[in-house]
Structure prediction request, 825 residues.
Amino acid sequence: MTFLAPLALAALLVGPAIYLVHVLHGSRKKVRVPALFLWANLPRASSGRRRRRWPPLTLLLALQILAGTLAALALARPAISSDPPRHLVLVLDASASMQATDVAPTRFEAARKAAGQRLSSLSPNDRATLIRAGSEATLVTSGSPEAVRAGLATVQAGPGGAATREALALASSQVATTPERRGQIVLLTDAAWTPLQPLGALEAPVEVVPLGGGAENQAVSSLQIRMDPSGRAQTAFVEISNIADHAVRVPVRVTADDAPLDQRDVDLAARGLTWLSVPLPLEAHTVAVRLAGRDALSLDDAIVGVAPGGPPRDVLLIGRPTASLRRAFESIPFVRLLVADLASGDRPHADVTVLDGVLPAQLPPGPLLLVDPPAFSARLLGVGVGSAARVRAAHPLLQGLDLVGLRNESPSVTGVPGWANVVLGTVQGPLVLAGRLEGHPTVALTFDPTLSGLEKSLAYPLLISNATRYLLAPAEAPGEAFDGNESDIRPRAVQSFAASAQRPVADGWLERWPWLLGGVLALLTVEWVVFARRG
Amino acid sequence: MIATDTFGRFERLSFVSRRTALAGLGGEHRSRRRAPSTDFTDYRPYQPGDDFRRVDWNVYGRLGTLQVKLTEARERLDLVLVLDCSASMAWGQHDKLAFGAGVAAALGFIGLARSDEVRLICLREGQQPRVLGPLRGRARVPELVRFVSNASASGRVDLNQALAEIEQADGAQRMVVLISDLLAPNGMAEGLDALLKQRTDAVVVHVFSPEEANPRLAGEVELIDVETADSLELGASLATLEAYRARYARWLAEQEAACNTRGFRYARVASNRPLGSVVLDDLRQAQVLR
Prediction:
């Protein structure tokens, strides 16, 4: 126990002062009488004629002195030593691998529970921040532990990877906003990550809480459908991988347009992969491959692909299509290219609509491919924090692409719109976005391929082909795509993160003056009641 | 401010003196002196040298002897009005000093209206008393009223000493009217004895405040004497107040007895009473006026 304002202890003299006032002035009511001799020696009359005397310590006087003493003590701000207030930043890995069920019910739920326990250890004076490390780092909420607990209940894991590095940087910046608090970053993750690039010194030490530990997972890691050069048959090439450390036999079912096509058991070596080739009917349109076995992660047990066979898909090109863009679509065997004017009111129905350089107020129905959309459009305004610099190499949009050529592009927008996820981006801004724009499955290429000469490279038609397939695939298009790297749910070595030298944070003091002040009010209330009852 | 508009009702009043007035001829009070007047008192046989005009010839016709009519002289009354101006007179909801000043003015008016010789003395602490008079004649009434109106209360007054020091004019007998609350710790017995020794006809008009008789006190109080500033701490309970009232009643009786045993008249009047009622009723009932 100490006093944060010890000079105020001088106010303790108020107790003797109150008594002195009673000595000097007394508590008796003064009454003037015409003659005193008539009152002398009456019953209960005091015979003393002293002007001053020591007043008896009545209840009222005792309450006054006690209230004054407590008020003086409150002024001195008594406090007991306590830990300094904390700022706990919880970074919750929301990658797809966190949905593995090797920890019941899932790794993510276990992480949520562990985060809740960490919040329970905080006092109401502490501060907490919750950051979701999904494909992007998102600040969920920051404030009191209870407020963060409410935000924790709303967080869900996603199908993508974990922007752990960005999340830790964001956590460090959050700690820096509260220099008076002792910061701590807790990363709740399954550690199924590729080694993170080096981070600078963080503002607070990082505690990594590992969750899960199994590797029991098999995945359909790739599905490629090729038309025979003769054009009379098509074949699906399926890649199935085994993450587990032991060989497994997995039943595989292949369907074409929801009709069973093939079913077989596949033997997979420990941490191995195998390729299957499945002949497809010429008219097959949509091909799905599913693993019937039970593993820890079900997200990667199925994959859906668009076959070039079947009736051609209509792609409507609106805007100012360049020749290279036309050629790119014409090279896709199952695409029938249609061109329409933006001002035309009678546009044909299409499976995918390409808006090249334009973004009309009324969006066409169906999936959209935006090529170099106008940067001034409000639909492309960036929101949130964080950089767009990332490469999701396993994303279907980037399958088979040489990304070196793409990285030289100059993005026409600088921020990441709220509706989109960044598939490829630089520090200047995003280059390839995917998401749902006003309900439309949308891929946006936010650069002009004619400026950098990308349109003349092989990557350009491949990127257009990937985008078309991505938008036509029914399972892939609606939301964020599954990140193939997430199939590897094996925990890796836990990295250590360097923290900058701890800022000097003063020891916390738990002040007790509010209790004393409450006591003063209570005493004054009692004094008033006693005074009122005595009349 | 003294309301003199009621004084007209006192025109016909006069003082009742238990001593023969000797302040000089020309008054309206009986005298032991025999002097030509219309007030017949007795006969005596004619002696040589008597005024022949005073022989009652009707008696001579019936009895055949010369009888001379004796008449009584009318003299002025030497009236001394003594007003207590101690601090206790200013105490109470109804100011005793103002009330006493009104009584003094009324009595002075009555005296002047009856051609008496009126002196007014205001007793003060530590100073010579303020004295007005002797006054004679109705024309001095305004001066009298002004004098008593300027009376102010302060300090304490020793009634014994004050009464003993009242000068006796020319050795003549006088009538002293003391207007006071009599709240003196030493009482006034010695003063009354001094008046008695001088064969002075004295009247004590005891002015009291109703709050004196029924004080309203409760709880722990510190009583302060308005004259001496002495204090007395008191736990005022019902028993205390009851004892006080008993003591006060006993004290009143003692004051009345002190006057009666010396042959002085005593009139007790409350300061909240109307002046007209006090003069016309209380003082007449006490045989001070008629």
About this structure: Chain B has a mean pLDDT of 82. The helical segments of chain B are 57-63, 96-113, 141-149, 159-164, 189-197, 210-213, 238-260, 275-285. The longest strand of chain B covers residues 25-34.
